[in-house]
Write a structure and sequence with these properties.
This protein is α/β, with parallel strands linked by helices and 355 residues long. It has a single domain, classed as Purple Acid Phosphatase, chain A, domain 2, CATH 3.60.21. 21% of the residues lie in helices and 28% in strands. It has seven helices and 20 strands. Strands 1, 3, 4, 7, 8, 17, 18, 19 and 20 form a nine-stranded mixed sheet that branches. A seven-stranded mixed sheet has the order 2-10-11-13-14-16-15. Strands 5-6 form a two-stranded parallel ribbon. Helix 4 runs parallel beside helix 5. The relative contact order is 0.17.
């Protein structure tokens, strides 16, 4: 497997073992549950001093992908990609669409919903960001069903919620002895129900809101690192917009260590800004794409990557990039070939001027 390593190439421990999750807020809203359940025996000192998280881009388990889950196996979409997660303690992605069998679809061009009966196919993920323009495709009823289903499967979530406070609260992942990481998520695209006051929905991206939330999490004093996910940018372009930079820089300026971007559906470059690391777009990871899409859209939407980030106290973030490609015939991600990987890594390392 060909990989590009920034700063260091690192290993990891058993993915998910002993992790707990909590809301990054003092509000009484219950936190998402997590699987596997932490061990019942007393914690022992001397646990891992670092933690490695694998991040992927857009996850769309609908249309032909959902059909394959029904006809072949619920784990079909991720089966060939699992080796790309090796060495990661946690896996985090952006879940495009609701996981619901109830709700009224919003009036928009595309509405995505995965049958909750197939949600077991999501279990390789420790957490998913819901801060995107499809989380409320089936209204607040569909969002509620999504949250319930993810909870039932032990998958943590952030970036949306039953109230604005919950949507912006974020979550904190803890592994005994390892650094603690807060995750916050925001959507800048629209076509969604924004969380506002006591009304649920998706956390809306703005530089002031992001800065306020990052500062709040930092002020709590019990978090070592802060990750912000941003659903922003222009679809099907490798060019980073001025708006993406504005939001990402605001997050880092406020104290975020890592910004992970989604929505463009193609890869965009990696940038070191001040003390932060910005992954502007990780592209698609699970998405129904076929030969016609390859002809009309080109290679971009098929090119993907798994970004393994290692968090270690007192050290800069270490990034390992593992190229992947959505197979045009199998309609699922797999490790990239050497030739495919070379093109992918060239894209991630090439900074283009913003619009």
């Amino acid at each position: 497997m060909l990989a590009c390593v920034l700063l260091a190439c690192v290993g990891g421990s058993t993915r998910g073992a002993g992790i707990t999750v909590a809301l990054a807020t003092d509000t009484p809203t219950p936190a998402p549950t997590l699987s596997p359940t932490p061990p019942e025996e007393p914690e022992t000192p001397g646990g891992p001093e670092r933690i490695t998280v694998a991040f992927v881009g857009d996850l769309m388990f609908q249309r032909e992908v959902e059909q394959a889950m029904v006809e072949i196996d619920v784990g079909y979409p991720l089966e060939r990609a699992l080796e790309l997660f090796e060495g990661a303690d946690l896996v985090v992605g952006n879940l495009e669409g609701a996981v619901t069998d109830v709700g009224v679809p919003l009036v928009k061009q595309y509405q995505f919903a995965l049958d909750p009966a197939l949600a077991g196919g999501l279990t390789p993920f420790w957490a998913v960001s819901l801060s995107n323009n499809h989380a409320t495709d089936y209204g607040l009823t569909g969002l509620e069903r999504t949250l319930e289903t993810l909870d039932e499967h032990g998958i943590a979530w952030f970036g949306a919620g039953r109230t604005e406070a919950e949507a912006r609260a974020g979550i904190v992942g803890r592994l005994p002895g390892a650094p603690t990481i807060a995750y916050l998520g925001y959507d800048d695209i629209g076509e969604v129900i924004w969380a506002s006051g006591e009304t649920g929905g998706v956390a809306r991206a703005s530089a002031p809101a992001i800065a306020e939330d990052v500062a709040r999490v930092r002020a709590a004093g019990d978090v070592d690192f802060v990750v912000v996910t941003l659903h922003a940018g222009t679809e099907y372009t490798h060019r980073v917009t001025a708006r993406q930079r504005e939001l990402a820089y605001a997050a880092v300026d406020a104290g975020a260590d890592l910004v992970v971007g989604t929505h463009p559906h193609v890869l965009q470059h990696v940038e070191r800004y001040e003390d932060g690391l910005i992954l502007y777009s990780l592209g698609n990871f699970v998405f129904d794409l076929d030969e016609d899409d390859l002809v009309t859209l080109g290679e971009g939407p098929f090119q993907s990557v798994v970004a393994l980030v290692t968090f270690e106290a007192g050290q800069p973030l270490a990034l390992e990039l593992r190229p992947a490609r959505i197979d045009v015939y199998e309609n699922r991600p797999r490790p990239a070939t050497a030739e495919e990987a070379e093109a992918i890594l060239a894209l991630l390392g090439h900074a283009e001027a913003g619009n």
